[in-house]
Amino acid sequence: MNGRLKNRVAAITGGTSGIGLASAKAFVRQGAKVAILARSQEKANKAVAEIGDGAIAFVGDVSDLPSIEAFYKGVAETIGKIDVVFANAGIADRTILEEVDEVAFDKIVSVNLKGAFFSVKYAVPYLNKGASVILTSSCLDEMGMAGLSVYAATKAAVRSLARSFTPELGRYDARINVLSPGPVATDIERKAGFSERDYDAYSEYLRTIYTKLFSRLLSKNFSIMMSMMSYSTN
Ligand SMILES: NC(=O)c1ccc[n+]([C@@H]2O[C@H](COP(=O)([O-])OP(=O)(O)OC[C@H]3O[C@@H](n4cnc5c(N)ncnc54)[C@H](OP(=O)(O)O)[C@@H]3O)[C@@H](O)[C@H]2O)c1
To answer: Most CB atoms within 10 A, among 34, 62, 115, 207?
Structure first.
């Protein structure tokens, strides 16, 4: 631990597993005081035990707005005003166009988009000046994928939210960043009912896209990179 976040207060949604849980542990290693929002007391207890070092948890759901509000109020009253908001909770349920219904559509939007929006809105009264707000989007915020149209659309919307939050939260000197991960081995696809085969196909698809994107960017920027390298070595 090098204490870069010593005594900073971090509030994380989706901190019970995957990327959020790993981040919570990393924040604690850097000296932060961490609070997570968990969907049940059982999940809260398990995650807090794993994160260690005085992490605390509140039970709630990002699609239940009063519970988000109560989360930040509880965090501020228990461990102090907030320096880092990590609006990370998300689901990746599949939406096959011919099969999806309104309930399934609303569930994804409610967690991924509405949940992310209100996870920032309700934090505002409790932010310290200079706070960092991080939203988890996805590499699918600018790509398409069969069976994930609604998920991808919510992630594009999350990325868009950050563009408007930046000027809106300027008066708090807050920094807004969006994390757009590629495939990460977590339980998200399995929770969404992806089979092992679907998951492997999905990862393979993304690998192909990345390779194409990367080689295109590389050739486009090759001459710029060469110039930069020569500047930095001169
Ligand atoms: N894994 C990837 O390949 C990938 C790629 C790009 C983006 N992402 C994004 O990264 C974020 C984290 O996902 P992950 O891969 O770490 O998956 P994960 O392990 O399933 O973690 C998702 C977290 O969100 C929580 N959550 C889900 N619905 C919630 C709700 N209604 N209210 C409160 N919390 C809720 C989950 O709680 P439970 O423990 O109760 O389920 C869990 O803590 C998501 O926004 C996801 O879209 C993931």
So the answer is: 34
| pLDDT reported for residue 202 | 67
CA geometry: angle 58, 187, 177, nearest 5 deg:
65
150 lines ligand 1 (CB under 6 A): no
How many folded domains does the chain comprise?
2
186 lines ligand 1 (CB under 6 A): yes
Residues 25-53 have pLDDT tens digits of 999 999 999 999 999 999 999 999 999 98
1 within a domain of the structure (yes/no): no
Domain boundary among 152, 173, 189: 189
95 lines ligand 1 (CB under 6 A): no
Residue numbers in the chain where pLDDT is lower than 50: 220-234
Q: Which residues are CB-contacts of 185 (< 8 A; sequence separation ≥ 6)?
A: none
Query: Which residues lie across from 36 on neighbouring strands?
Result: 12, 57
Based on the domain organization, do 138 and 233 belong to the same domain? no
Q: How far is the C-alpha of 234 from the C-alpha of 227, rounded, in Å? A: 11
- What is the rounded CA–CA span in Å between residue 44 and residue 128? 25
> For tokens 């995650």, what's the residue?
47
21 CA → ligand 1 middle, Å: 10
Same domain, 219 and 157: no
